[in-house]
Amino acid sequence: MRPGIHPAYRPVVFRDKAGGLAFLTRSTVTGTATVEWEDGNTYPVIDVEISSASHPFYTGKSRVLDTAGRVERFQRRYGTAHS
After folding, report:
1. What is the pLDDT of residues 56-82, one digit of tens each?
2. Residue 36, beta-bridge partner list
3. What is the pLDDT of residue 44?
4. Distance of alpha carbon 34 from its chain centroid, rounded?
5. 9 CB contacts (<8 Å, ≥6 apart)?
6. How far is it, in rounded angstroms, from Cα 50 to Cα 27?
């Protein structure tokens, strides 16, 4: 690799806001927030909305969606199409 053209590759903590999972890995992503990790060191932390701890595909839990309400709202707005 040519020096000076690549971003810094360093330890970063990714934290799932919904599932409570946090893991330490290496990345080039930058963040302003920091967290003290289990080893006593302070690392930048990146909050993510979804990870393997909270995604329904990985957890095996389905989420309830209000599909009936969405369909009714659509029909009220746009009516039903009759052929």
Report:
1. 665 556 655 566 677 788 888 887 666
2. 42
3. 94
4. 17
5. 26, 27, 28
6. 18
